[in-house]
Specification:
Blueprint lengths: L8 E6 L3 H12 L4 E7 L2 H11 L3 E5 L7 H11 L4 E6 L4 H10 L3 E4 L4 H12 L4 E2 L1 H8 L3 E3 L3 H4 L5 H11 L4 H8 L3 H15 L4 H10 L3 E3 L3
Parallel strand pairs: 1-2, 1-3, 3-4, 4-5, 5-6
Antiparallel strand pairs: 7-8
Helix pairs in contact: 2-3, 3-4, 4-11, 8-10, 8-11, 9-10
Length: 223
Amino acid sequence: MPGEEKQKTRILLADGQRMVRQGIRRIFEAEPDFEVVGEADDGNQTVKLARELKPDVIVMEARMGKQDSVETVKRVRAQHPEGAILVLTALENEEYIGDMLRAGAGGCLLKSDDADKLIKSIPFLRAGVFVCDSTVEQRILTQAIRPRKTAVNAAEHLTRRELEVLRLAAKGITNTAIAVELGVGPRTVKQHLANIYGKMHVASRTEAALKAMRNGWLSPERD
């Protein structure tokens, strides 16, 4: 309706350092489309405020005290599934970030990213588009990746061979090298990838690998 005020995106900030929260708050408060509705300094408080305030987006650091951040993501998603979660990281532990993404976080940016990148990510995040800094993405995907024991059954309609191709593709291995590894032709690998993209509704091996990790079909290799 004419004259109707646009509804602001309501944001909950979660970071163990008050100065960091204040800095992020200033970034959002400088924009007319955002409203910071609360601040949390640990996992338990994040879950509590997410339940009470029902924010549109929770911006949280990757590591917080008192409660494991992966568990925090799981609890927030269970109690407030409508809220999107954006993780901010210093990139000290890629495997930990992967766990948060699989737990339901909608994206991950670096704490060193500029304010404009943070602001622009929010509408995409709310629309259900996965947001990830390219450095974070590359660091996660270059780790060795293996299937979970239940991955074949969990991966919806992916065949065992398609899951194997996805695992190798997620390592950054070329189609030709995958073909040699599996003892098939490059065209067969290309067809497998096309089938994977179609079944997973993605457009690239990076999207497929990240989505598979978020759904628990693939997981970082643990030493």
